[in-house]
Structure formats: C-alpha cells, structure tokens
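Q: Mind making up any chain with structure tokens?
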Amino acid sequence: MIYIEFTSRRPQPGLREHRGTLAVESFESQLQRFHRAVLAGQSGWEESWSEDQMILSIGRTWRLGPEPEYMTVWHTPSAGLGRIDAWDKVFRSGEADELEQPFREVARIERAGCYEALLDPVRQPTTSAEATRSEPSPRTQGGIYYAEFFEPSGPHDAIRELYVKRAASHAKLTLALCIVRIGKLAPEPGGLAVWTLPSYGALATIARDLDGMIEPVRLTTAGVYNDVGTEIL
C-alpha cells in the first residue's frame, strides 16, 4: 500500500519563549523549526517502524501547484489496508508521542490517502554524506519533482502502459511514482504520478504531454516540488 499525507504549515503566533521571556520569532525561524520537526518525525518513524518506507518528502516550490503544499509518500510493501490496524495501535499506545508532538506543533495533516501502486515506486537515495551519519537521515536534498494529479478514466492496465511508454520516451527523467487510489480512500482526482527532473528546464519536455488527453487519464492539475527543507516559498 501507498499512504500519502498531505500537509500544511500550522500558523504560528510569532512569539516564542526564550530564557523565561517572550521574544518575537521571525518567519525564517518558524520555517526552520517546521523543517526540523517534519524531518525528525519522518526519520524517527522509519527507524522505529521500518516496515514503512518513505518514498518522498516534498514541498511545493515556486508556488507551482495545489494546496496543501507538502506531501509525504509512505510505502508498505508487505501490507495493505490492514497496516492501518498496526498504526492505530502505535498511536493509541503513545509509542509515537515523542515524534508526533513536535510535528503537531508546527504542521497539520489536512488529508491522507490510500493508493495502489501501478508501477514499483522508486525510492530516492540518500547522499553519500548522509549515509555515513549514525542518525536517521531524509532522502537526497535538492531534488526537483514534477507531480501530475490525474483522474483515472480508463483501466489500470491502460494507465500502466501509458506511463511505461512515457517513461521510456523521457530517458533523462525518472518516474518515481505512479499510483491510483483504493476506492475513494484518497482525495480527488484519485491518481498521481511523480517524476524526478534534472532541472526546471526539463519541465518543457513533459509539462504538455497530457494536454487534451481524456483516456486513460485526464490531467486535472500539476505541481513542482523540492525535497522538504529546500523548497522556495
């Protein structure tokens, strides 16, 4: 199963306690605190519950794309919807409180979705520097991603074939994700594909691909993303 969290930054009061007194907190400080809490929570979850693999942790960049601005994509290869039973036990037991409390102070998961992968997800590698660290680390920083939010209007096999052909025709791009929702257990439009790009200029080679297409998919919107912590607001 693929599980996606669609997240936004929680509004902050602009004041923060510092050495017993209230001090004005800049937006830059708030944003850094958001990044730290999100990345620490995600790496902490992966370390504690390794059945769940984080495929992507990305934030909208250059204001190109829909809200909520952030997406975290989790893949549990060994389980389906029954994995939610295990998550429910973890959250109700309080085991995840240490990770979740800092996250909830700065972030809000607006919606989540359960999906079926039409093609094997491509997990973004860690950098060589991150691989040498003893603590858990996020995926590679500085990536550029193009997300296609589409309505599945044809059979899954036809959608799969379409994306296999497109991936072959875009040899310099990587199709990291191609998924459709399970029943109605995800937001509209129900389908999502994410490509890894070598540059923003590469958008010109793919952004018009689905113009005018009605079947097997109908593109409803698209967005451009960076790894969390590197996005341009």
Remarks:
- The longest strand covers residues 107-117.
- The chain has one domain: 2-227.
- Residues 2-227 form a domain with the Alpha-Beta Plaits fold (CATH 3.30.70).
- The helical segments are 27-48, 83-93, 97-106, 128-131, 156-169.
